[in-house]
């Protein structure tokens, strides 16, 4: 591996055992340096989640959720900024159901670890993130001109240290 300038990362190494069709699943582990790598029912390789039956069902579910649900949740979600939690809650319930669909879990299972594993922000955090990205792009000039014209830098009437803080004027 050194000749190809590659380095093994035992903390990110996953082991998957693919048995014959009717063989039982064996749990075993391999020692890589100081780390013990145990077999898991699924592993991610080049962005594709494969299970031990090579059905790719988790990957297909994740793609469907991304295409059909998350794209709809993210569309114009910065318009939802400032709405009460009661208006955001149905969207959060949809996101929770999508996470449970990917992992094929029952309706009342806890969803926070699933969102963390999927690297998904909760809906309210997604709204804040999208709004902040739009503001950042407008300030830096990479947003459309109609947005760039809205955001003006803060310029005090007299010289102050806060003039260089990067604040925006209301």
Structure notes:
This is Reverse transcriptase domain-containing protein. With 170 residues, this protein is an alpha+beta fold. It has two domains: 1-55, no CATH class; 57-161, no CATH class. It is built from five helices and five strands, in the order βββββααααα. It has helices at residues 57-74, 85-103, 112-118, 123-140, 145-148, and strands at residues 15-16, 29-32, 35-40, 42-45, 48-51. The strands form two sheets. It has a three-stranded mixed β-sheet with strand order 1-3-2, with no helix packed on it.
Features:
three-stranded mixed beta sheet, 39% helix, 170 residues, single chain, 5 helices, alpha+beta, two-stranded antiparallel ribbon
In short:
By secondary structure, the protein is α+β, with helices and mostly antiparallel strands.
Topology at a glance:
Layout: E1 15-16, E2 29-32, E3 35-40, E4 42-45, E5 48-51, H1 57-74, H2 85-103, H3 112-118, H4 123-140, H5 145-148
Parallel strand pairs: 1-3
Antiparallel strand pairs: 2-3, 4-5
Helix pairs in contact: 1-2
**Overall morphology:** extended
Total E-strand runs: 5
Rg is 23 Å
Quick check: average pLDDT? 86
Helix content: 25-40%
Q: How many helices does DSSP assign?
A: 5
Overall domain count: 2
Helix and strand sequence: EEEEEHHHHH
Distance between the amino and carboxyl termini: 56 Å
Structural class label: alpha+beta
- Low-pLDDT residue spans: none
What proportion strand?
5-15%
The strands making up the biggest β-sheet line up spatially as 1-3-2
The major β-sheet equals: 3 strands, mixed
Protein name: Reverse transcriptase domain-containing protein
Organism: Aldrovandia affinis
């Amino acid at each position: 591996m050194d000749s190809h300038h590659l380095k093994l990362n035992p903390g990110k190494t996953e082991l998957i055992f693919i048995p014959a069709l009717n063989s039982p699943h064996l749990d075993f582990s391999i020692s890589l340096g100081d780390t013990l790598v145990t077999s898991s029912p699924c592993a991610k390789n080049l962005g594709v989640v494969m299970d031990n039956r090579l059905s790719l069902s988790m990957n297909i579910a994740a793609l469907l959720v991304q295409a059909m649900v998350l794209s709809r949740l993210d569309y114009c979600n910065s318009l939802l900024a400032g709405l009460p939690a009661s208006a955001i809650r149905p969207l959060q319930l949809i996101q929770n159901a999508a996470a449970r669909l990917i992992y094929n879990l029952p309706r009342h299972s806890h969803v926070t670890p699933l969102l963390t594993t999927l690297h998904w922000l909760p809906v309210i955090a997604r709204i804040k993130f999208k709004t902040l990205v739009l503001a950042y792009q407008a300030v830096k000039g990479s947003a459309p001109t109609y947005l760039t014209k809205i955001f003006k830098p803060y310029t005090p009437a007299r010289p102050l240290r806060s003039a260089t803080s990067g604040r925006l004027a209301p």
